[in-house]
């Protein structure tokens, strides 16, 4: 089976969580973050109520 590397853009709450879960599968993962600190206070989640909404409502 051919390994396909995965690139995650953004290491905020969601990006870091996805990278963590995918790392359990031992696949090639690259995380790109524009801030110095992953999941820093400058992420989109920090500018709202810190609630992740999933799916339509």
Which properties best describe this structure?
57 residues, alpha+beta, two-stranded parallel ribbon, 1 helix
Structure description:
This protein has about 55 residues and is an alpha+beta fold. It has a domain of about 40 residues. Helices cover about 20% and strands about 15% of the residues. The chain is built from 1 helix and 2 strands, in the order βαβ. The protein has a two-stranded parallel sheet with strand order 1-2. The radius of gyration is 13 Å and the shape is globular. The relative contact order is 0.24.
The gyration radius over C-alpha positions equals 13 Å
Number of DSSP-assigned strands: 2
| Largest sheet: number of strands, sense, barrel closure | 2 strands, parallel
Low-confidence stretches: none
Number of helices: 1
**Elements, N to C (H/E):** EHE
Described by the principal axes of the CA atoms, the overall outline is globular
Mean residue pLDDT? 76
Q: Give the strand order of the largest sheet, numbering strands 1, 2, ... along the chain.
A: 1-2
How much helicity do the residues have? 10-25%
Structural class: alpha+beta
How far apart the termini lie comes to 39 Å
Q: DSSP strand (E) fraction?
A: 5-15%
């Amino acid at each position: 089976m051919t390994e396909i590397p995965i690139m995650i853009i953004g290491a905020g709450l969601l990006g870091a969580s996805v990278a963590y879960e995918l790392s359990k599968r031992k696949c090639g993962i690259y995380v790109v973050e524009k801030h110095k600190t992953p999941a820093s206070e400058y992420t989109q989640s920090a500018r709202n109520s810190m609630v992740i909404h999933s799916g339509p409502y």
